[in-house]
Amino acid sequence: MAQALYRKWRSRTFDEVVGQEHVTQTLRNALRDNRVAHAYLFSGPRGTGKTSTARILAKALNCTGPEEDRPCDVCPTCVAISEGRMLDLIEIDAASNNGVDDIRELRDKVGFRPSEGTYKIYIIDEVHMLSTSAFNALLKTLEEPPPHARFVLATTEPHKIPATVHSRCQRFDFRRIPVVEIAGHLRHIATEENVQAEDAALTAIARSAQGCMRDAISLLDQMTSYGAEAISLEQVHQVLGSVASESVSGFVDALADQNVAGGLQLVHSLLLAGASLQEFTTQVVEHLRGVMLVQMTGDSGLLDDRSPETVKRMEVQARKLTQPQTLYAVKRFGEAIGELKGGYQPQLPLELALIEVVRGPAATVVQATAPAQPAAAQPAPATPTPATPAPAKEAPADKKTAASPKEEKTAASAAESAPVPLDQGAVSKLRAQWNDVLSAVREQCGLKQQAALRAVRDIAIGENAIALSFGNNKFAKDMISEGETLAQVSGILAQFVGRQVTVECQEGETATLSAAAGRVVRDERTADGPDPLLEFAVSELGAEVKDEKGGKRKK
What we know:
By secondary structure, this protein is an alpha/beta fold. It folds into 4 domains: 5-173, Rossmann fold (3-Layer(aba) Sandwich), CATH 3.40.50.300; 179-240, Orthogonal Bundle (Helicase, Ruva Protein, domain 3); 245-359, Zinc Finger, Delta Prime, domain 3; 424-541, DnaA, N-terminal domain (GMP Synthetase, Chain A, domain 3, 2-Layer Sandwich). The chain is built from 25 helices and 11 strands. The chain is globular.
């Protein structure tokens, strides 16, 4: 029976470990100086070489070859470890042997001297799965092991390791392997296996592995069984359910050009072609991340794992999109990935994300709540977030100053990129529609959240944030500040003000916003008068107000 490639090409020496030089070099130096610790903790994502490195360390400690070449991988001890028949190498799967009895058995046997080599090596994989009692049983052995015993604990979740165990080990963090290094190793394997493969196909496999070498080699193994003479990029797309980079770039072009129809048509064609929309959306997020890096740093060298054509496309898109648009698009499409897992219309979350990124999430609601206007004065269609600012007022006649063409161009460019500051009218409109806001909160969040919002004393609105002060009502403030509730209230208020905003909940009679919120306007409400929560309890819940003596209070 043929052996899987990921087992056949498992690293056998320190030189073969890819992307973890900070670990292998330290272990080599420790072996050279005879300073190998009695216990190591190897942590990191799956498939990055933790268990393989532990086996290589076991080889090096027991190798009988020349000292400078250890592990030599040719001596009887190294061959026995590679073939899995070394009695002094004990591998324990903590996922299925996680009880205290299993660790007690280990503790009883660790005192016996090795039968073949110099050291007994215990490799405990997924050590975070051990029970609390098992960890406690392991502590004393880890602290004072026999001189012939060495421990290597491997885990993907180091935060679950008790501090008492962690402090007894030397910790090495294995990193996700870069795409370039994975692709290079795949090329080496393909050459040795006499497999023809396009460089673009290997790069696509490496990118889909997300830093996991084992996943990349397994996918390469799968592609060798495809039946074609050479592994092509199209074959990789078919196996992964992904799409060509041209389709991803075209979709982002539709975002940049505010072409909703073009984007929807592309989604429809991908659905008919049988592509995985979840994988496609993941590719879109990765592409938008590249656009974001170009916008924020201006350095396209950070995209060294992308083709030159794709990088040039990203640079053009970075000039078309504003930074707030790109950030919101990354966030919104990232949310859509999780929403695409099921549903009657699987493409709907992606389509909604596209529309919201281009048109803004509140476009429809703002149009519905706007007062009716004559047909001749209908407002223009909703614009993408952030919206284009209204034209500036003309300067007074006595201050006419001729501006140079260069200054006019600079001012126009700044006006196009600047977000629209909300004015006092936005606050007044929000206050006039406050009952509608409360109704929406009641429908989406619940009765208690609606009652808490009635305690708002003051509102301050900036260009991208709204602050709500609740007086001394800490209970109401904390209720709205709760994570899920705050996100829902932020979405509701964004619909009424017509743009994406964050909500800050504060105590005190005056709402304040940081400078990052942009120009701030406010609408103060006096703290005098009846308590809003009290009014709500009386009007909505039928409560009665009594004085301290138990009698009804006069209205």
